Amino acid sequence: MIVLRRFMNNPLRNFNYLIACEETRQTIALDPLDGEGMVQLAAEHGLDIKLIVNTHEHHDHIDGNPAVQAATGAPIWAHKNALGKIPNQAHGLSAGDVIELGTLRLNVLFTPGHTPVHLCLLAPVSERDNVPVLFSGDTLFNACAGNCYNGGNVDTMYDTFVAQLLPLPDETLLYPGHDYMKNNLAFALDREPGNAMAGYWADQVSAFAPDDMPVMTLGQEREYNPFLRLHEPLIRARLKEQFPQLGDGDRDVFRALRSLRDQW
Ligand SMILES: [Zn+2]
User: Fold this and answer.
1) Which of 3, 24, 98, 130 could join 102 via S-S bond, C-beta 3.0 to 4.6 A?
2) Confidence band (pLDDT; 50, 70, 90) for 250?
3) Which residues pair with 121 in a beta bridge?
């Protein structure tokens, strides 16, 4: 599998992706924002865009669809609940579907929370790729979870984390929909000041350009991402200072973290 990631240099700090089969060069354009740029990038690498996939319906994940479609004729696929919300969507995907393109195999995960229609793509271990790869859209970010204030629901997001994301193996590579890593690591350190890995990575990436941000594994994320560290005593203790009524459930901790991150 070939993965090309490009930073969009927009205020929302989107990443665009091309996901390609090495043998046939058939390619998925994931969440195109700069459609013409993605078409050009594909041409530069000898890739043939056959399919557009949108993780969800927000404009910064679909605005490049028309340009990609005009240049390539590729159909637009997204979750079935997005039908009617994403212009020109040709097919509605469901949890458990497998997108096949050349040697590519991408499992569709239904991951609502950021919006009710959100999906993630999971490339499982294969003969060619020895680690799983997760394209997480706006669900899981480096050092954070996606927001829930533009059509989302934090309880649904929590359920998605527990049921879909936490079970994934440590070696899974994470490709999120935005670059918020520096800011998210600052938030992680604010929640857990002594976290050595959060400090290490904040230092490492401080001078990095967005296109050079490291691709982290879920195992690494579990070392500093507060939304994957709900049992951490320090995180809970600091939340209790601000939310004396905070319950002991993981869901309560997740909700409190998300509300603090909304104001960060
Ligand atoms: Zn979004």
Assistant:
1) 24
2) very high
3) 108, 135
The residues facing 99 across adjacent strands are 106
> Cα of 158 to ligand 1 centre, how many Å?
16
The CA-atom distances, in angstroms, between 199 and each of 34, 99, 184 are: 33, 38, 12
How many angstroms does the Cα of residue 261 sit away from the middle of ligand 1? 16
- d(CA 82, ligand 1 centre) in Å: 13
Cα 61 to middle of ligand 1, angstroms: 7
Tell me the per-residue pLDDT of 43-61, one tens digit each, with 9 for 90 and over: 999 999 999 999 999 999 9
- DSSP at 130: S
Consecutive H or E run containing 241: helix 233-242
Q: 119 CA distance to ligand 1 centroid (A)? A: 11
Name the nearest CA neighbour of 191 among 243, 236, 142. Answer: 236
Measured in Å, residue 245 CA sits from the centre of ligand 1 at 31
Lowest mean pLDDT among 120-129, 198-207, 219-228: 120-129
Taken in order of first residue, the domains within the chain and their CATH numbers are 2-262 (3.60.15.10)
Mean pLDDT, all residues of the chain: 97
Where does the pLDDT of residue 128 fall: very low under 50, low under 70, confident under 90, or very high at 90 and above? confident
Determine the average pLDDT of the residues in 204-218: 95
Q: Please state the length of the chain.
A: 264
For residue 128, the CA-to-ligand 1 centroid distance in Å is: 31
Distance between Cα 49 and ligand 1 center (Å):
23
